[in-house]
Amino acid sequence: MIEAIQLGKQFGDFVAVRDLNLVVQPGELVALLGPNGAGKTTTVRMLAAILPPGSGQARICGYDVVSHAQRVRGMVGLLTEYPGLYGRMAALEYLAFFGALLGVEATLCRQRSEALLRQFGLWEVRDRQLESFSKGMRQKMALIRALIHDPPVLFLDEPTTAMDPQSARTVRDAIGELRSAQRSILLTTHNLSEAEELADRIAIIRGGQIIACGSFAELSRQLLGEPAFELKLTNPADQPRAVAVLRDLVSVQVLDADRLGWQTAEAHLLHPVLLNRLLTAGIGVHSLAEQPRRLEDLYLRIVAEDEAVPNPRSR
Ligand SMILES: Nc1ncnc2c1ncn2[C@@H]1O[C@H](COP(=O)(O)OP(=O)(O)OP(=O)(O)O)[C@@H](O)[C@H]1O
């Protein structure tokens, strides 16, 4: 479990993170999203016991990141944006070296290394020096390194940057599997479709503070209201009659000549009645579909609304 309680960090007069509260339960993946300079990396570095918090508290699996820093580092797997790999070492040698540093027994380390190198398609190049690896291969190696001691907590900072679509897919699938293994994962990313796909909850940080947090469905409802539906009529000439027939059932919006829209949380109850009415009135329905919502729309809206108030760093 990851816990941040009123966590804060200042660099000189500059407040990088302020009163940040966040909990990531075991088996949960939370995506931390935010504009450049929002405080994501600073937060992760504090939670991973790399940077001491300026104020507040952080705990990993119940251990305080300051008083039990060493223990916390052993329980955390960290994939940073710029992983420094030792280029002269071969892949397998590197993992043995890192595993030993983290206290992983040699035979176990070799077994895990093989399983992970195979999972990420790097087994064939296990004896090649890391300096000959492409950016994407290095990123995969950094992820394997973060997993070599089988940590209960993972911090993944931009895990799929620099990867081709197929490699990014492999890594995303692997992240999905890691989550079901009862780990707590905090993912920072600028790739919103990746966050939408992987995250159980989304936390949006701006100016060092969390300005929104919840599941995609919760944030959608809070910001955009109940799910929205769109009905397309077979014949645009029926539109005035369709509006009249549905008016007392739902708040109908005319979207254009042959399309009507509404929002409801109870589509399963409403739609059979509504379709029956239209049918009885002899009004043809071409299609009825829920309007897809994207995390990108929500994110841009949350950040734009927050920008309308003064920057929290100077509040
Ligand atoms: N060691 C430091 N000294 C001074 N300022 C710092 C230091 N580390 C971070 N900052 C500042 O704190 C703010 C937050 O930085 P941080 O790297 O946490 O942001 P981020 O959300 O990870 O950004 P990005 O998406 O660009 O990676 C930035 O304005 C950064 O310049």
TrEMBL record:
SUPFAM superfamilies according to UniProt: P-loop containing nucleoside triphosphate hydrolases
Which molecular-function annotations from GO does this UniProt entry contain? ATP binding; ATP hydrolysis activity; transmembrane transporter activity
Q: What GO cellular component term, any one, is given?
A: plasma membrane
UniProt domain ABC transporter: residue ranges? 2-232
* Keyword terms: ATP-binding, Cell membrane, Membrane, Nucleotide-binding, Translocase, Transport
Q: Does the keyword Membrane apply?
A: yes
- What is the protein's given name? ABC transporter related
Gene source species: Chloroflexus aurantiacus (strain ATCC 29366 / DSM 635 / J-10-fl)
Q: What is the lineage of its organism?
A: Bacteria, Bacillati, Chloroflexota, Chloroflexia, Chloroflexales
